[in-house]
Specification:
Elements: E1 5-8, E2 11-14, H1 18-23, E3 32-37, E4 40-45, H2 53-58
Antiparallel strand pairs: 1-2, 3-4
């Protein structure tokens, strides 16, 4: 596939054919990593994790203390 770098607003972009995106398992809205090495540009799909542990931990209050919670007596066949 041959394409041309074009101006899009204050940025530049390259148009990609639908088949090219499908072949690379990419679709609109996917997060990608752009890597430049030895004069070449590599676009790699980022795997999306449902949660970001560092982001979740950053939201914990500084004074948070771990404690055991009781949910009452077991119901059914639970064993703890």
């Amino acid at each position: 596939m041959v394409s041309k770098i074009q101006k899009w607003g204050n940025s530049q972009g390259v148009e990609l054919e639908k088949q090219t995106l499908e072949d690379a398992d990419l679709s609109i809205g996917d997060d990608v990593e752009i890597i430049v090495q030895e004069g070449q540009i590599l676009v790699r799909k980022l795997s999306k994790s449902k949660f970001d542990l560092n982001e979740l931990l950053s939201r914990m209050p500084d004074d948070y203390e771990v404690r055991e919670e009781s949910f009452g007596k077991p119901v059914g066949k639970e064993e703890w």
